[in-house]
Amino acid sequence: MPQETTLRAERAAMHHRVAELARKRQEVLRGAPKATEAQHAKGKLTARERIELLVDAGSFHEVEPLRRHRATGFGLEGRRPYTDGVVTGWGTVEGRTVFVYAHDFRIFGGALGEAHAAKIHKIMDMAIAAGAPLVSLNDGAGARIQEGVVALAGYGGIFQRNTRASGVIPQISVMLGPCAGGAAYSPALTDFVFMVRDTSQMFITGPDVVQAVTGARVSQNGLGGADVHAATSGVAHFAYDDEETCLAEVRYLLSLLPSNNRENPPRTECVDPVDRRSEALLELVPVDGNRPYDMRAVIEEIVDDGEYLEVHERWANNIVCALARLDGQVVGIVANQPRHLAGVLDIHASEKAARFVQMCDAFNIPIVTLLDVPGFLPGVDQEHGGIIRHGAKLLYAYCNATVPRVSVVLRKAYGGAYIVMDSQSIGADLTYAWPTNEIAVMGAEGAANVIFRREIAASDDPDETRRELVKEYKSELMHPYYAAERGLVDDVIDPADTRSVLVGALAMLRTKHADLPARKHGNPPQ
Fold first, then answer.
1. Full-prediction pTM beyond 0.70?
2. What are the residue numbers of the active site?
């Protein structure tokens, strides 16, 4: 009897402990109702609601939900909520593991303290060790001032891990609230930045400091809102009107990326015929090199089902960078955009394309380059702004890339811009050209003016002489087969066959293996 009594007491004690655990878990999940109402009143979701939208239903496993800070002073010892203002864990997106941390603005405004940072450090280390993508849902007020310098050290640990994970696992930052000061550098170190209009902002110094120092008055959105960073600064790769759409697009991006740099991107079944001819391309691209057209329409005709995800859609519009599929295989597309600045390369376009090429190369994504480039943008502002070093970034990125690389010259490919846009001479595996291509040092008009300057000046009819000499230069050096005759392009193809040619080339290159020279790392142009 004494033994039975003891067993009953132990069972009762266990049930009591389990009930206590359930109450604590419920407290963790529920949070403060008034704080939740305040978050919703701002048009924002809670951290857990965001995670539910990001990962597959029922797949989230939380890490350290019962963590609390140990700080004292300034009233902190009386405020020790569970999670310490950040939810961390892992789940799946379309069945693949993804790690996530989400600032909980309801607790300390999502401000980062020592315990808060330790949770983030741990989940980042787990993501790196497991070889799985990391998504950060950012909605925090910066460092927790009451904890002093240990909060700043916490940010240092995040930056160090961002850098260590760079090129190893995909890192995606989703800005869903304010992000000011040093905290903004973590998103800048990641591969992709998403923002939501009106509710998310990023800046190093806020509007009050800007006004105090410069006298300029600006709102938070005017200084660092989603549209500013998507169209002007280039900090944000994507901007959306609401959190639901934003997180759905994060899921779509993840479906196009491998889990880590040792894997290939996930391949899907392709129902779009591989040998589908695109007769529309014959009309989409004018033969006249001076007439603009929308390169996006060309991309839609070539890729599977016309679907692609454009990166930095609103920044540096003279070049298009997109992820798409060809025969179910993910590819990165870099293409000049004749609708904007005639598709020239400038500082911003060079930076945009260079980072995209580096990302593709890091994560085993083949690169398709579509050329229609008249050169680099001339101008004092460009030269003084460092177009030489910025253009060299794109050159360096292509030369350093070891993934399969296929380029297609649609129309113009002039001067240094032709070389930089993955020409055969810098390592493109295969180069094709349409019969409308013009590969040359410069346009015929400019070339004729330089080569035949004296003949034109001495002519009785300079305009007529110039026209004749331009015609002669074109027929001698700029006809569509000049480059093919000299082995600078591998073939001249029917534009309607571009899709099938690219699919065949990439299939052949799928087993490509290339090693870079042994070195600690390169020293890319700054």
1. yes
2. 181-182, 416-417
